[in-house]
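Homework help board

Subject: predicted structure for assignment chain

Our instructor gave us this sequence and asked us to write out the predicted structure in token form, then describe one feature. I got the tokens but I'm not sure how to describe them. Can anyone check?
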Amino acid sequence: MENTVQKDHVKQIFDAAVEAVQPANIIPHVLNIRDGRFQVGEDLLPFEHFENIYVAGAGKATAAMAYEVEKILGTHLTEGVIAVRDVVDVPLKYTRTIVGGHPLPDRNSVVAAEEIVKLLGKLKKHDLLIFLLSGGASSLMMDIPEGLFLPDVILVLDRLMKRGATIHELNVVRKHLSELKGGQLVKKCSGAMVVAFIMSDVIGNDPQLIGSGPTTGDESTFEDAMGILEKYDLRKDAPYSILSYLEKGINKTIPANPSPGDPVFKHTRNNIIADNRKALNAAKEKAGELGYEAHIITDSLSGFAEEAAKEWVSKASSLRRKKICMIAGGETTVKVKGTGKGGRSQQFALTAAVALKNSSEITLLAAGTDGSDGPTDAAGAFADSNTYARAKEQGLDAQAFLENNDAYHFFERTGDLLKTGPTNTNVMDVIVTVIG
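My token output:
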């Protein structure tokens, strides 16, 4: 089969995965109005049960989620504010948007947190807060407690990312440098009912990890956060403000985050409404329509991108049958050693391109469902059995680009970047590979 045909097929399969987890295809199933009552998650409630209905939230998919909520509830809404990554192109009437920084927070991320806290201050016992949460929230909604400074927080998070910290580790640290994350947001809601609609971007769908868990109890501790700094050799040179704040928490002069069983969550409902598995199931269905024998290998792909890609290619190369499609989802990490530009999916694809140089009739796409891979404007990249050879003809040394963490510029020159723009969703990454 021509590589151009395979490339088109893996793109169609990826597109089907993304389409399946669009808020427009999900929110109407968890929020409905009928017979003077409305379904909110698993609850069916009369409108008169609440005096006011507010919307708040943060994440890459939140604007599209808010738009669907507004279409359904309309004039029943009182007010809303959300933190987003991109300029919103949907017509929101009741919900203000604030564009924050990602993958590292910026001053607008702090403003977004401040505005959300102001809205929470309006809540009363007989009000409802619909909280919309998706990947990216940890950075887009960043409060800075007294004693901390934004540049210091950015420095620590940046170093953790570059040293390969997992999303679990990053969010444990974030939760303990905040007065909103780790369930603390609910403490500011004055006993109002809180219903969170959550699009999962973490393996296992643990609500404690998604967006650093602002609406769910936290089992991690200040000691855990300090231990993560030690693990990545940051305790000795982290800013004093960070170390001092964590030490205060360890010494209990700063309150611990509420635990999952805390009574503060009595009126809180957390609903996982979309995840990576849902996207993979749609990808598998599309692959079948295109004539492939499709297999979902895992929805928990993790570890370093380079190691995961080598194992993936080894598995693909061992299959001798034609018309096979391998699909996986998850989130790898990259230990940044070079000075190049890229993201985990591009690093995965470039590693695969090198590993595929002696194979035939294999094409893959590694991409983020949010349309953004690392600090780049690409969702990911394609690689096939001929990528290495084609690049060599252009004078490109794939291995050198890989070692410099410069996958973006490699694929930019080979024409294999996938650029989708913001997709209005985020359920981690998807790997699609077709054989024969």
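Reply (TA_rk): Your tokens look well-formed. For the description, you could write something like this. The CA atoms of residues 302 and 332 lie 4 Å apart. That's the kind of observation they're looking for.
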